[in-house]
Amino acid sequence: MSTPSQTVGPFLHIGLPWPDGEFVVPEGTPGAVWVRGTLTDGEGNPVPDGLVETWQADPDGRFDHPDDPRGAVAGFRGFGRSPTTVDGQFGVLTLLPGALPGAAPHIDVSVFARGLLHRVVTRIYFPHNDNMADPVFASVPVERRQTLLAEPAKDGYRFDIRLQGEGETVFFDV
Question: What share of the chain has pLDDT > 90, as a percent?
Fold first, then answer.
């Protein structure tokens, strides 16, 4: 029998609800795009009991947070939380982030899932930006950088997350 101290997975939907869920911005917000993907395990199977959490700057590269060195800007929370579906799908409706000082525009991502005692953390970068100017992106081996790039899709972007195995998404120690 699993208990909360043994695994995170089965308890995510119960213990970590977020009132706005996948809506970083409300539907109908001008410029809003979906960032959607599939969370898969090491064998490529969908993870149906995962949670994908995002946090990002606004389109001007600012945070509604007192730690923003340029001063907090009110009005854009920048946070989303999407439980995965039975087929591992997740998505957040957001605005594309702006560049931060010394960093390319990106979305920070935390993943919680069965078998993980701690979250794993990655980033979503966008192919139309100069990502090589970002020291974090540039530090990733060339052959693994594609796991950090979203792909343009019909109504936004696609970003699949593979927890381990061939094509594993790059995760960062934070």
Answer: 73
User: What would the pLDDT profile of 95-151 be if each residue is shown by its tens digit?
Assistant: 999 999 999 999 999 999 887 878 999 999 999 999 999 999 999 999 999 999 999
CA 21 to chain centre: 13
User: What tokens were used for 46?
Assistant: 């969908």
| Full DSSP string of 99-166 | PBTTB-SEEEEEEE-TT-SS-EEEEEE-TTS-GGGSHHHHHS-GGGGGGGB-EEETTEEE--EE-SST
Residue among 21, 82, 99, 93 nearest 47 (CA): 82
Q: Which domains does the chain have, with CATH numbers?
A: 9-162 (2.60.130.10)
How far is the C-alpha of 56 from the C-alpha of 96, rounded, in Å?
Answer: 9
174/170 Cα distance (integer angstroms)? 13
| In contact, 151 and 159? CB cutoff 8 Å | yes
Instruction: For residue 91, list its beta bridge partners.
Output: 36
| Parallel, antiparallel or unpaired: strands 79-83 and 51-56 | antiparallel
pLDDT, one tens digit per residue, over 35-62 is: 999 999 999 999 998 999 999 999 999 9
